[in-house]
Structure prediction request, 183 residues.
Amino acid sequence: MNVIMIHGAYGTPEENWFPWLKTELEKAGYTVSVPKFPTPDGQDLENWLRVFDEYKGHLDEDTIFIGHSLGPAFILTVLEQIDRPIKASFLVAGFIGLLNNTEFDKINKTFVNKRFNWDKIRANCPRFFTYASDNDPYVPLNKTDELSEKLGTKTIIMNKAGHFNAAAGYTTFQRLLEDVLNV
Prediction:
């Protein structure tokens, strides 16, 4: 199995639960890639797609995407562009559309303020898992619910998980690990 983890705005591959999850999945025999994308400087969809170009050749029916925050919107764009289906996508604190947060909307707009080809996205990924927190300070629950509805899945609501980041105590994410291992 091939797992590709996508961080969000202002994020890095070395933060939150990413290092822990990468280690746990590698122990279980997965190959895990965690690209580093430019953020906040140089953050736009085209720049991120250029970084991702080197990973496109590794996508196949055993690929799993995991994204956090802005990462899910980027994953949706990749799913629109590929010509073969992957296994599953796990979208944590994901959203589409603007968040009405000037700081984030400015650098996120090219990722989320666009029309998505939902039919192609669903055709290229048969299984979606979306996770939201009931107290996320950045992504309101209804934004993840909107995403879940478009993907034909139900939001998994985690109580008091904040933005699923280290500030909220998320340096590990056992539920996510279990869900990935069971897909």
